[in-house]
Amino acid sequence: MQTRTVSTSPYKDQAPGTSGLRKRVGHFQQPHYLENFTQSIFDSLAADQRHSLLIGGDGRYYNDTAIQTILRMALGNGFRRIVVGQHGYLSTPAASLLIRKYQLDGGIILSASHNPGGPQGDFGIKFNTRNGGPAPERLTNRIYQLASSLEQYHIAELDPVPLHECATYQFGDSRIEIIDPVGDYSDLMEQLFDFELIREQFAAGELHIAYDAMHAITGPYAREIFQQRLGAPQSSLLNAEPLSDFGGAHPDPNLAHAEQLLAIMNQENGAPDLGAASDGDGDRNMILGRRFFVTPSDSLAVMVANAHRIPGYREGLLGVARSMPTSRAVDRVAERLEVTSYETPTGWKFFGNLLDDGRITFCGEESFGTGSGHIREKDGLWAILFWLNLLAVRRQSVAAIVASHWQEYGRDYYARYDYENIDSSIAEQLVSDLRGQLTELPGQRIADFVITRADDFCYKDPVDGSLSEHQGIRILFGEQARIVVRLSGTGTDGATLRLYFEQYEPPTGQLELPTEEFLQPLVEVGENLLPVCQKTGRSGPNVIT
Ligand code: G6P
Ligand code: ZN
Question: Alpha-carbon distance 226 to 319, whole Å?
Answer without folding.
Answer: 30
